[in-house]
Amino acid sequence: MTRTIDPFQLASIALFCKAAELGNFTSAAEAMGVTPAAVSRSIGRLEERLNVKLFARTTRRVKLTDDGRAYFEQCEQALAQLQEAERIVTGNQASPSGRLRVSVPTTYGHHRILPILPKFMKKFPLINLEVSISNRNIDFVEEGFDVAIRMGALEDSRLIAHKLEDAALCVFASPAYLKRAPKLRTIADLSAHDCIQFIMPSSGRPIPWGFFERKGEVDFMANSRIQIQDDVLGGVTLAKAGGGVFQSYRFIVARELQSGELVEVLKAHAGRARPFNILYPQNRHMSSRVRVFVDFVREHFRGK
Prior knowledge:
Elements: H1 7-22, H2 25-32, H3 36-50, E1 55-57, E2 62-64, H4 66-90, E3 98-104, H5 106-113, H6 117-123, E4 127-133, H7 140-143, E5 147-151, E6 159-173, H8 175-180, E7 196-199, E8 209-213, E9 216-220, E10 226-229, H9 232-240, E11 246-249, H10 250-259, E12 263-265, E13 273-281, H11 288-302
Parallel strand pairs: 3-4, 3-5, 7-10
Antiparallel strand pairs: 1-2, 5-13, 6-11, 6-12, 6-13, 8-9
């Protein structure tokens, strides 16, 4: 026998999705204009109908179970499709509105994304942005993020990715350091230098430096006396202070290279780059907030 969905169940699904998004029944109740008890009862009816536990409840918060997570992903997509269908049928072209949660890495956030957000906010005044600037990995469902920007290849097949750019790398140091340090003409010469190494937060391991030689791409693992964790900008600051040689993205140090505060070295071996992508879950693609933000960011980088 085919199950039907009545209006009350649809309302319960909407309350469930809001509770899953916010991780709290009280917050979901406030957002939906009902009481916490109404949220709890609605989700209880859903769990009874489905014969599964959707949330693991504690005294302080609620957390999706594995079944709850799977149900949330499908329900959220279905609700978004219903909203989009209503918009199309009624001809409602109202400006996208509501909260949009975005996660960006520190360097890319400061130098690439934050500078363009005022223009986005002016264009879409009804969208409220919540930007998390951090290098840590996120869980879209668990933490309620809509969009993320990350470096590297896409590993999660549940995400949609669009490349923004291949960010060029360069190696640099301060004039004062280079004046007192040994000559630096080849990659092998780095072994005699103070190399500043960055530790990738997601792996806890140092990132190899990337170069080009006649035989093609090569990686160099700097033998470093000092390592920087979490914040790449710390390596840039240390290099400017004369602490050694560092490799990072050219866009971070473009002004310092132009002013002479930093000097690029090993130019003959430059040219390596790392990809940056904008990511979002498949079930977010119908959201007008996500759509306009992704389109806005992609259009900005197409013009570079």
